[in-house]
């Protein structure tokens, strides 16, 4: 089976304070996965660098897409703690997407991507809508080659969304169109401590590589700064 990838966009909203949100995520939600499940290879969280919402993003490398159906993982959602159960229903947005890895430009010697030791500091995520008759492989090949010339670029990966669910107070009562997401998701990483701010990292050259083109439409483009990368049992670095 393919390597899995879990993407979760979230927005606390006005019913959950940022302090409560961060305490839950850092001290309960992430540790239940990273500290106990070897299938969770890495885990990192990012904050929005573009002033858009949702303003938080969590990313996890998963050993295999079958993990998403394994009892060791599904029981965490089925048997939430009272605290988590009470908090999740108050979130403005919780947008969870499980994916299969399609292509990878390759790990960089400069950064460990999402691992806790020397993680990537700036990322861009977006979807790609592919016209009939075109192939995501063609887009990927072109982008992998073009990205090599971008200052600070370290890695690009493409994923196929295999399941998704969006919940939250902002979603409640809306129609099924709220659940429509792009079939293909892309993660670009940049890592250069010489960038003064996110606007310097998100250069026009970088944007041009991700721009829509014939047969390929870029959607949901977001820019993110690293908030925290977490140690885990799979990384062998729990204290």
First-last Cα distance = 31 Å
Helix/sheet category: alpha+beta
Tertiary shape: globular
Q: Would you identify the regions where 5 or more consecutive residues have pLDDT less than 50? A: none
Taking Cα atoms only, what radius of gyration do you get, to the nearest Å?
17 Å
Profile the largest sheet: 8 strands, antiparallel, barrel
Q: How much helix, percentage-wise, in residues?
A: 10-25%
Strand content: 25-35%
The H/E string reads EHEEHHEEHEEHHE
Number of helices: 6
Biggest sheet: strands side by side, in what order? 1-3-2-8-5-7-6-4
Short structural summary:
With 239 residues, the chain is an alpha+beta fold. It is built from 6 helices and 8 strands; from the N terminus they run E-H-E-E-H-H-E-E-H-E-E-H-H-E. A hairpin with a 7-residue loop joins strand 2 and strand 3.
Please tell me about this protein's structure.
With 239 residues, the chain is of the alpha+beta class. 23% of the residues lie in helices and 34% in strands. It contains six helices and eight strands, in the order βαββααββαββααβ. The chain has helices at 18-34, 71-78, 82-88, 136-147, 198-201, 204-210; strands at residues 4-11, 40-48, 56-62, 93-104, 122-130, 153-167, 184-190, 216-229. The protein has an eight-stranded antiparallel beta barrel with strand order 1-3-2-8-5-7-6-4. A hairpin with a 7-residue loop joins strand 2 and strand 3. It is globular, with a radius of gyration of 17 Å. The two termini are 31 Å apart. The mean pLDDT is 93.
